[in-house]
Amino acid sequence: MMKATSFEYRHQLVLHELIVGAAFFTYLIDRDDVVWRFIKGNSFDVRFLERSLFAAATLLFGISAGICTLARAYPRLDRTGQSQGSASIWPLRPTLHLRYLGEFLYALALAFLLPLSGFFVLVIGEAVRLFRLVCRDDQASPGVTSGDDIALARARQATPVAAVSTHELKPEWANAFRLEAIKWGLFFTMIVFTLTLKDRVAEALIGVTILIWILLNFSLLTNLREVSLL
């Protein structure tokens, strides 16, 4: 019942963006983000409270970017098919679960920028979506992979698993940072915003971040590959 459908698994980016879009649309009915909602009218130093809460969001952005980059960087090889002489290549579930954790922390950080209703839409929506993916991964056979892991598997099918030592597998940091560029860009944006509290500066940096991500991952977009954007 809670397991993600094949459609959900193949179109993770699309569903993620729909949830994010629905959350940001709540600005049409509520103009105050969740941080300002709870600090306005406070007798304490409002600027200090605002910076403190956005600093917490910034920390979440950084942690989520680090976790997702780490999860993407290390190749996922499973040796279960080795005894039969076949190279079974698929993402190890702990690695996927680590990435799902990073994606949830990212959604939580992004929710700080939304109205209260949008905060709940994003956090609950992403929690349900990611939990369903975890349930599917726990029940999936080793042959089932997500979009951007299929390409990794195909690229390595010519390499026998028995010939590859786990100690010889090197992390693919360049590819990982490229895929997670938007998270690192927003992390930098939030650092600047927390220090300046200027909306225009943050909006400009967000625009630059999205443009850089598109340029870095244009080939993936043209191939309709499933990668995480927002």
Give the total of beta strands.
0
Q: Work out the count of structural domains.
A: 1
**Count of separate DSSP helical elements:** 11
Strand percentage: under 5%
Radius of gyration: 20 Å
First CA to last CA: what distance? 27 Å
Shape: globular
Biggest sheet details: none
Topology as H/E string?
A: HHHHHHHHHHH
Mean pLDDT comes to 79
- Proportion of helical residues: 55-70%
Poorly predicted runs: 77-91, 141-167, 225-229
Structural class designation:
mainly alpha
Task: Explain the overall architecture.
The structure is a single chain. This protein is mostly helical. It has one domain (6-172). It is built from eleven helices and no strands. It starts with 5 loop residues before the first helix and ends in an 8-residue tail after the last helix. The model is unreliable at 77-91, 141-167 and 225-229 (pLDDT under 50).
